[in-house]
Amino acid sequence: MFRFLPGILVVEAATVGVVMAARGASGETDWVPLGLLAFIITLLISVWFGSIADHVKKDALAEARNSFARERENLLVAAETDKRATLEETHQRLVREVSRANRRANIKLGLGLFALLSIGAILLAIELVTVGLLTFAAAGGAVAGYLVRSRQDSLAYQQKTGQGAPPPQLDRVIEVKQATPMSRRLIRQRRRDEENDGR
Questions:
Q1: Alpha-carbon gap, residue 194 to 199, rounded angstroms
Q2: Residue 108 and residue 36: Cα distance in Å, rounded?
Q3: Cα gap 143→137, rounded to integer Å
Q4: Which of 96, 121, 177, 183 is most exposed, with minimal Cβ within 10 Å?
Q5: By three-state DSSP, how is residue 13 classified?
Q6: Alpha carbon 52 to chain centroid distance?
Q7: Pairwise CA distance, residues 139 & 146, whole Å
Q8: Quick one: which of 130, 2, 129, 96 has its CA closest to 56?
Q9: Cα–Cα distance for residue pair 21/40, rounded to 1 Å
Q10: SS3 call for 2
């Protein structure tokens, strides 16, 4: 608005000058030169106003361009910041998901290994029980075999000797002769012999 103020003042002064010139003239005023003067003044003022409007438009356009460039820069910075924040958040979420999946996989693997170890321990215990049962069965079979063999031998011996008679038992008889008592002289002689042998 203040850029157009000098031009408005010039137009008003020129209008006042033309009116004053028309009054000061004699009765026969020639309006053609005054009109031509007013037209020239109006044309110059319009060119002036057009130049001022051109400058105003260029300044406004430059300011708008600068404003749009700043806004675009701010939008790019904000978009980049949002993009970076979104990428970081996505990365953290992926890291959390991967760690959660790893934990679940580790738990499943641990449970699987525990189950395999339990099955192995059970099979080992069953195998040891089986080995123990086999040992007991072998020992029982051996004892039963010896008992059967002993019974068969006993029956075979009974059949040879005559149906149920017990095997003969030999009675040993020891006969002892009565000894005659020794004389005293003989006893003394033996003692002397024993003492001599001791020396």
A1: 9
A2: 103
A3: 10
A4: 177
A5: helix
A6: 72
A7: 11
A8: 2
A9: 16
A10: coil
Q: Is 179 helix (H, G, I), strand (E, B) or coil?
A: coil
SS (H, E, C) 25-88: CCCCCCHHHHHHHHHHHHHHHHHHHHHHHHHHHHHHHHHHHHHHHHHHHHHHHHHHHHHHHHHH
Inform me whether the pLDDT recorded for 112 exceeds 70: yes
Report CA-CA distances (Å) from 151 to 143, 154, 156, 158, 162. 12, 5, 8, 11, 16
Whether residue 170 is predicted with pLDDT greater than 60 in this model: the reply is: no
Q: Enumerate long-range contacts of 167-175, CB under 8 Å, 24 or more apart.
A: none
The pLDDT of residue 1? 58
Q: Give CA–CA dist 94/92, Å, rounded.
A: 5
Task: Please report, in angstroms and rounded to a whole number, the separation of the first and last CA atoms in the chain.
Answer: 167
Residue with tokens 């738990």: 107
pLDDT at res. 178 = 61
pLDDT exceeds 80 at position 162: no
Q: How many CA atoms lie within 13 A of 43 on its CB side?
A: 6
Let me know how many helices (H) and strands (E) the chain has, helices first: 3, 0
> Crossing angle, helix 5-24 and helix 31-161, to 10 degrees?
160
